[in-house]
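Homework-ish question, so no full write-ups if that breaks the rules, but can someone show me the predicted structure for this set?
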Amino acid sequence: MNSLIPLLVAAPLAGAALLLLGGRALDRFGHWLATALAALSFGFGLALFSDMLGREAEHRAITKHLFSWIPVNGFQADISFRLDQLSMTFVLLITGVGTLIHLYSVGYMAHDERRRRFFAYLNLFLAAMLLLVVADNYLLLYFGWEGVGLASYLLIGFWQHKPSAATAAKKAFIVNRVGDMGLSIAIMLMFVEFGSFSFEPILGSAGTVGGAAQASEGKLTAIGLMLLLAACGKSAQVPLQSWLGDAMEGPTPVSALIHAATMVTAGVYLITRSSAIFDLAPDAQTAVVVVGAVTLLFGAIVGCAKDDIKKALAGSTMSQIGYMVLAAGLGPIGYAFAIMHLVTHGFFKAGLFLGAGSVMHGMNDEVDMRHYGGLRKHMPVTFVTFGLGYLAIIGFPGLSGFFSKDKIIEAAFAKGGTEGWILGLCALVGAAVTAFYMTRVMLLTFFGEKRWQPDADGNAPHPHESPKTMTIPMVLLAFGSVFAGGLFAYNGSFLTWLEPVTGHSEGDSPLAPLVVTLLTTACMLAGVAVSYLMYGRSAVPVVPPVGSPLTRAARRDLLQDDFNHAVLVRPGSALTAALVYFDSRGLDGFVNGLAATIGGISGRLRRVQNGFVRSYALSMFGGTLVLVATTLLMRSV
Amino acid sequence: MNPVNYLYLSALLFTIGAAGVLIRRNAIVLFMCVELMLNASNLALVTFSRLHGTLDGQIIAFFTMVVAAAEVVVGLAIIVSIFRTRHSASVDDSNLMKL
Amino acid sequence: MSALLTVTCAVPAAGAVLTAALPAGSTEARRSTTKAVALGVSAVTLVLAAVVATRFDPHGARYQLTESYSWIRSFGITFSLGVDGIGAVLALLTAVLVPVVMLASWHDADPAPVAPDGTFENRRRTQGFFALILAVEAMVIVSFYATDVFLFYVFFEAMLIPMYFLIGGFGDRAGGPEAARQRSYAAVKFLLYNLLGGLVMLAAVIGLYVIAQDQGLGTFDLQTLTSAIADGKLQLTGTAEKALFLGFFFAFAVKAPLWPLHTWLPNAMGEATAGTAVLITAVVDKVGTFAMLRFCLGLFPDASKTFAPAILVLSVIGIIYGALLAVGQKDIKRLVAYASISHFGFIIMGIFALTSQGQSGATLYMVNHGISTAAWMLVAGFLISRRGSRLIADYGGVQKVAPVLAGTFLVGGLATLSLPGLAPFVSEFLVLVGTFTRYPAIGIVATFGIVLAALYALLLYQRTMTGPVKAEVSTMPDLKVRELAVVAPLVALTILLGVYPKPLTDLVNPSVNATLSQVHETDPAPAHPVAATSGGEQK
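A: Not a homework solution, just the prediction itself:
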């Protein structure tokens, strides 16, 4: 069975290679080929899953060694895979949601002349993401990690003729590279400390203790902080969050798959996977929860102010991943809930993005929500699926988001002490704000009066429901949004499933679970109510009002780009310019100056040759005199 | 007569010749001054020969005379040809090889 | 004693003479003959170099296939050749790149008609160009195979002559007199820098000989000298060893080039044709880094250790400095040149970290940088030849009109920024790990290089390939079949060596171990080693 693991990666990889090298011949059916291969990969995933369920909890992890990748003395990196409950969860999420989004893209990209290439990149993404989660060592994980970065770069910049898309793609890659730097330093630290960077020897597995237990806390904290830096890059956490909003330049299915459901959650995977390290490094854990808490508020605030539907959802994604990172930073109390929220978020956020894509599809690619309004009559399927996703994300009791988010807030309080109170309150405030901005999105898009106008060319949008290839994935994801949470929470099934990998412990919460649930629900209802008062009762202006300074800052992503510009970009370009000057005038100037000096001296010396016989004769006499005088002097001494 | 006096004479003649070479511009005069210097050294050689009682100095003096004669032939020919082409015997005018 | 190595060196040398002697290229047919002959010779050389690499047994003696002929007996100078894993791999790289460069420069040296009646500027241009390339190839291969210090020195210096003519005589002709002036400036600068380095090295070579002769070892033979140094038969005083080390190292650091001796490279690569630029950075410069491994470490182990920290600091400055300057360039070819300076910093860092990961990584880096930079630079050359401008600002939106060109250019850029899965990643990571185990601070600073690499590679791609299509590039044709034949093997090798570099590491590892044991260095041991269970089958 374990030889199926490489095939999991190989199927979409083959698709990508075929579509990229196959040329125009594949234009006609390439997209279906890609979708079929994604589905095939999902099939392999299901087969492996059923096989895994057939074994006892402790023996579920399987490995597959393919070949030795980089063998150098003492440094052993292999292409080898490890599939345990944690990776299995991801495999199913990635291939499942991935297949649905392939299907959706068949309709969404129907009129794009470069559709074949789009599907090649999507397949490439699936392969890299699967590699990331089934790798059995950190270096191979890094391979997948950068591979998804590449796929993300290619897909964000898919419409390369738009300068904004090209810039956004480059920005995403470079910000991610800063995170990747953290990952590579972490791997180097592990190599120095353990002489290895494979999961099992360092982290241990069910029943065995890994090498991490022997290392000093300082070393583990350093490794943990570097891993956190990596996670911040990939998961768009503060301070490396700035790329996610711009990444919405990519086609909407990409935003759904990569920048909502799967890739951006890789940071959470990394932290959870490295739980053995973080558990022994409390300082690193504190850093993780701080990052998570700050980002969940940051993203939520940004989400409140955006008029671009995709950017509002991007702020929300950032915020929701903040929840997951927060939970992962809580240690064994939170790992399982982080992953649970990750999966449910995968369903409802992918659904919301696909819904947004469907709206844009019907509205001539208009993204400004102030130009929507009243769309529920024109797009009933989109409205219903989007609405279910909305209810799930705000944590409406009974839907997916309710179960997972509630557990995270509970775990935050269970952290104990002042820290627990602060984190818990942050999470509660986050829940209220989430409800506020999501209600805002909902009201602006589907309710109220229609606000769209003809564009400059006089083409008025004719909102219509999207084709079946697009609505079917939306419906399926809506099912997930509704039922997944309940299924996972039923009898603690998800917890039991993941426990052999991540471990679990109950903290001691100062508040009873029921109190937390009630508080959360109250916060959520308050958020909805405020939003309804602001946007539901009166007509929404088409031109955005000036707003308070906070609103204006939030519209500019809380000045993140201004900050990066002032602190990094401008000094960086000044330094570069100075160095270019230094290289040509300083270093090269020195060398050229040396050459010029020698030339100058010989020019001076040349003037002695004035062409007058007498002066030559004089110098000869002088020379003779000097010689004679020296000889005499030497004699006399 | 003390032979050292011939050495003083020789030094005097050499100095006159050298001063002439450095000061005068006319190629012929220059040439004569060079001859004067050569002959001054000839005189010194012969004197030393006499002083030491060996023939070495006299032999070298003969060599010098032969070389000087050859030099006169070549040198005068050059001066004449320069005078023909440039209508001047001043050495300052012939500085064509200066860069 | 088989003559395989001599034959491998002699084939391109003879080919150079033959090519130069072919009839002048006033007609297309004659030029094609010239090119076909040169390409054929380089293909034969490739086969021979591959045979050498396969005949080399990694588990056998340090130097294999050795040959030795007496040359200048009174000074103990011999014509001795022999390969170790590193030399075999680098000679193979040279032999792979030369035919690729020839194919890429197919029309770069065609004489241009200067008058309408069909008279040409210089009818022997084509012959000259291809003969010079073959001459460079022969000299470089001798340098990689030489096991006699003096023999190495002679060819290390002699390759400057054909390179000088290649840089100064063949560039893009569109520029007019100003471009010609720049080109000759670049060629003279290249020559002067490297001659100065060579001069210092010559003094050190003579010094080494004099000291060795005083102790009864009047020879230039590398193996004799290194083993004599290792078992104490040849003793250098501390000062003498340091001075000689610096003499050798200076020459190699100029050639490599190491910061701050790098300023000739951007000029040379900028003004030369793309093919020549690849020869400079991917082939000729590798002799410098190769020689550091073989001569500096082998002959002067103690001085190498003494100077290693200082050299590491210079190389890490080079990494960051080169990358920052690449970001600030306006000229595509100069950008590639500064990127190469950054990469040479990595190579030198790997060598002088004195760990087996670092040195294996550095050797792989030489190969991988050769291949990936060749791909990047040659595609850049194709791009430039279509538009006739080296300025980045003159391009925009090329991917719309020439997607294959843009795609291969992106692959070259991604290789340069060391994306995992492509060959340079393997070597860069090994170098970083190897450095980090001994000097963590330097390793971390060098890691910033990977962010800057992403910045310059992607900025270049964004500015030239994406955005709205500029009017001047709107009719640009995509890659032709010949150009695809140039790029395809390079891209294939980049991917292959990125996923499965084992054949190379197997060749290189034993030689690296031998080098390290010469310096009496061992790898730092991990603090809490864990049993490597990676690779086990299902339990």
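Now go work out the reasoning yourself. Hint: The longest strand of chain A covers residues 62-72.
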